[in-house]
Amino acid sequence: MRSGRRKKVAQRAAPTKFDPCPPGAIGGQYKPLSETEVQQVYDTAVRLLSELGMGEVPERLTQDLLNNGATISGERILFPKKMIERAIKTAPKQFTLHGRDPNRSIHIGGARVHFGTGGAAVQTLDIDTAQYRPSTLEDLHHFTRLQDALRNVSWFTRCCVATDVPDNFDLDVNTVFALLKNTTKPVATSFTIAPHVAPIVRMLDIAAGGEGEFAKRPFLKAHISPVISPLRYAEDAVDVVYECIKHNIPMSCITAAQAGATAPATLAGILTQSLAETLASLVMVQTISPGFPMVFSNWPFVIDLRTGAFAGGSGETAVLNAASAQVSNWLGLPSGVASSMTDAKAIDAQYGMEKGMTSIAAALSGGNLIYESSGMTASLLGASFEGFVLDDEMHSNSYRALRGIEVNDATLGFETICEAVLGEGHFLGKSDTYAAMERDYFYPDIADRNEPRTWAETGATSAWERANLKAKNILAEHKPAYLRDEQERAIRAEFNILY
Fold first, then answer.
1. Mind giving me the DSSP string for 322-379?
2. What is the pTM of this model?
3. What is the DSSP string of 59-123?
């Protein structure tokens, strides 16, 4: 190869100096609801809470709600409209999700879009056998290390459940330990019951540098589902809310009603009920502690009404969660939606179609935190190492689409066009072309853009095979040690750390 060609090949292979698709791009271009329809959905949700209200309200929460303006009707607690509107006004509209590394913190609110994880997969698509098996604690450590090296996972919620840890307290503890050991991004977890919170905060304090340090700059948030559809509180989860507020753990309060099962089958109906239930979570949090940060996580889910199977990769799920983001943004609240899901079991065409469709819909609608968007398969029952790698590349393309087209005198290129037409007749090698190459285009690692003969000569590999190789390389090479030796010893001395 001639030296000039080698230089050009090397230039193409080198990382770009300018990131053409940064996380945190601005969404909000896609609005599945009109302004009038948004108002109708909100007004009906408020009417549900003020006239039907919430059932099974724990005694402590009942008293707090009544002191804040709620009323009783039989066994249900009603929320007057002004009480709901006060909660919306009081709730923070923007806040920071801290990473242990401050450079990895993310700011949420407005229409900024970040992809991340969620889920509680009980099965893992084995990286060697390509068969599903029960998820283990070792898998959780490996998934955490893998995503730590992927730039488009903006925060990491444990994506799988360690089914080999039978004790619930040990499970909660070892889940958080896996996050602390293997990443410094913002992280999230769930707590089985409220008494687990305080001991785990001791572990977080050790990682943060001493007693009380975690609460000063919390780098872990809690995922809590305090409402059971339709329109009931869940006592154990409400207790976790109180305990998290006590320890200054920000939270995502997640509502996940299912159309035709725990909510109306009509899309407008499930969106309305799900909004009412998420507002009930917001009222609860703002009643307990006005101004406490909460991600407004309204996740309307869809099932296949013929079979009852979850339909996370459906067009209905795409439009519902996009509408949820639109309504949350209209309210001015930090939004969380579940999207970029798939019902596919294999990393195949169904996987790519469903992931891509639901991902771009959620991003374009301006969902602040897009949960379940990395690595999840099989209707959230599975997690895949190859899926993490493929989804990371997909997110770059979504961010690039959100970034749009910069139009100014320089990018319109009038002089450049004139020069090419009157000169060499092409734009190859021009300084504007090289500048645009760095600034405007994303170059994938996994997607293959070669012509068929070159693809065949280089092994005729599939996207799954290329993602499998990249995942294995990352796991072999990326072995961070984010806990100092003395921190890890202190944690292991106090807790039953199993890996």
1. HHHHHHHHHHTPPEEEE-S----SSSSHHHHHHHHHHHHHHHHHT-SEEET-SSEEGG
2. 0.94
3. HHHHHHHHHTT-EEETTEEE--HHHHHHHHHHS-SEEEE--SSGGG-EEEETTB-EE-----BSE
Pairing of strands 232-233, 227-228: antiparallel
Residues of the chain with pLDDT under 50: 1, 5, 8-13
Closest among 267, 327, 269 to 297, alpha carbons compared: 327
413 belongs to a structural domain? no
User: Domain containing 262 — which CATH number?
Assistant: 3.20.20.480
Q: How far apart are CA 417 and CA 420, in angstroms?
A: 5
Domain with 299 in it: 87-403
In a domain? residue 374: yes
Total domains in the fold of the chain = 1
CB 226 within 8 A of CB 268: no
Residue 332 within a domain: yes
Which helix (H) or strand (E) segment is 452 a member of?
A: helix 452-457
Beta-carbon contacts of residue 48 (< 8 Å; ≥ 6 apart): 231, 272, 273, 276
Tokens of 446: 């996994």
Over residues 338-377, the pLDDT tens digits come to 998 999 999 999 999 999 999 999 999 999 999 999 999 9
**Domain assignment present for 497:** no
Place of tokens 């079979």: 307
Digit-coded pLDDT (tens) for 260-271: 999 999 999 999
The pLDDT of residue 5 is 46
Going by C-beta distance under 8 Å and a sequence separation of 6 or more, which residues neighbour residue 44?
A: 272, 276
Q: How many CB atoms lie within 10 A of CB 17?
A: 7
Mapped onto helix, strand or coil, the DSSP state of residue 188 is strand
DSSP symbols for 202-246: HHHHHHHTSTTHHHHS--EEEEE--EETTTEE-HHHHHHHHHHHH
* Rounded-to-integer distance, Cα 412 and Cα 408, Å: 6
